[in-house]
Amino acid sequence: MTMILFTLTTFEAGQYVDFEKVVCITGDGNYSCIHLTDGQRLLVSKCLEQLEPRLPHRQFLRIHKRYLINLRFVESIFPKQIKLTDGKVYAVARRRWPSVNSYFKQKIRR
């Protein structure tokens, strides 16, 4: 059974997206780009503020005003940067770094 994120209205058509296949979501103004595990990107006309409440908060983390990442795809953490399994490195906002860093330190201790 697929966990459905929501119906996305892209420029092509409505689609269903599985949470497990979303690596990250990048925002640019009133649009967001959803990056999937197969390398596909979906451009939607919703800002991150509209998408974030619809995501499972234990699986997704806002690290920057432009980035929401899926915690299951974190490969490594650097000072103020996170590398995902797709090879891309995303900046962590200065004001979000203390809480992001603390979150991952707690995960390591468990």
Automatic annotation (TrEMBL):
Query: What GO molecular function annotation could you give as one example from this UniProt entry?
Result: DNA binding
| Domain spans labelled HTH LytTR-type | 34-106
User: PANTHER family, per this entry?
Assistant: STAGE 0 SPORULATION PROTEIN A HOMOLOG, TRANSCRIPTIONAL REGULATOR-RELATED
- Would you indicate the residue range of the signal peptide? none
Q: What species is this protein from? A: Runella aurantiaca
PROSITE patterns per UniProt: HTH_LYTTR
Name the UniProt record assigns to this protein: LytTR family transcriptional regulator
Q: Which Gene3D superfamilies match?
A: LytTr DNA-binding domain
| Pfam name, any one | LytTR
InterPro entries registered for this protein in UniProt: LytR-like, LytTR_DNA-bd_dom
Coiled coil location: none
Its domain of life? Answer: Bacteria
